[in-house]
Structure formats: C-alpha cells, structure tokens
Amino acid sequence: MSLYQTVYLGLGANLNDPIDQIHHAIAALKALPDTNSEVKVSTLYSSKPMGPQDQPDYVNAVACIHTRLQPLDLLALTQKIELDLGRIRKDERWGPRTLDIDILLFGEQVLNLPTLSVPHYDMKLREFVIYPLLEIAPNLLMPDGLAIKELQNTVPLNGLTKI
Asked: Among the options 57, 68, 73, 87, which is catalytic?
C-alpha cells in the first residue's frame, strides 16, 4: 500500500462563470480515487491574465490534496476534470479558458517528463500561485529547499486581489 503524497494544485479560470468553475473543480478533486476527500483550498483571487490582455481577468486558487495516485495518473484525472468542465485545449498559450488545473508540487518529487514538470516550471514567478500557496502552507519548503515565504519578497502582487 503506497503512502499518501501531499500535492499542491493551481486552479484558474476566466470563462463560463470562473468562480463556479473553480468550485466544481474542487468538488471533483474531493471525489478523486485514492485521494483523501478533505481538500484544503485558499481564498479565491482575481488576477490579470499572463498572456494576451484582451481577455477577462482570472479567478485563481491553490488546493492541497493528499493522494496515493502517481503523478501521471493524477495529471490524466485533472485533465479529465478540465475537459468535463468545458476546457478545449488549443495551441494558444495563456489564452482564455474555462478551467486550468496545474500540478504545482507533488510531495518532494522533482519530475521532468515530456507531459509533466514538477515543481511547476514557472510557479516561483507567478503571484497567483505564490500568495494563495502562502495562505494554505506558509511554512512550505520547495524540493530545492527554498522557503515559499522567501518568494513573497521577490514576486510582486501585480494587481492580485482576494475575491
């Protein structure tokens, strides 16, 4: 029997009632197989889009789950949640979307696979990841030993606001 891993997930949406999309995603995370149904979730935040600015602001949150799933199995299930909630995958990077679920951290693991990089490749630069993560895990250490608290000194809020 494998042990539970603590996994942090970034949630984001800016189409089709984004707050509702995030709430549906959280409900789906609670129902994942081999995963504890208790999901810790940050406050919802409003953030400016990363890419093209001619799209609505995003609603973001960070969730913490405890799972026995393997990383690629969790990735497949989170992508299914995205699709079930109307996500259409396009080549456009940073475009508008109904839901985005990113695996930010998976225990202490460091993965560089063709379909999954953990820690998430850009999480240390994203205010909509760092501040919600600080809220639910203020003493978190990244796999490289960097304290999440240290990142708030280098990542500006950039208009990030609690909803």
From this structure: 87
Whether residue 100 lies in the annotated active site: yes
Find the domain containing 70 and state its range.
5-162
pLDDT at residue 88, rounded to an integer = 72
Alpha carbons 29 and 41: distance in angstroms, whole number? 11
User: For the segment 64-121, what is each residue's pLDDT rounded down to a tens digit?
Assistant: 999 999 999 999 999 999 999 987 766 656 667 889 999 999 999 999 999 999 999 8
**Domains contained in the chain, number:** 1
- The enclosing domain of 80 has a CATH number of 3.30.70.560
97 is catalytic: yes
CA atoms of 85 and 87, how far apart (whole Å)? 6
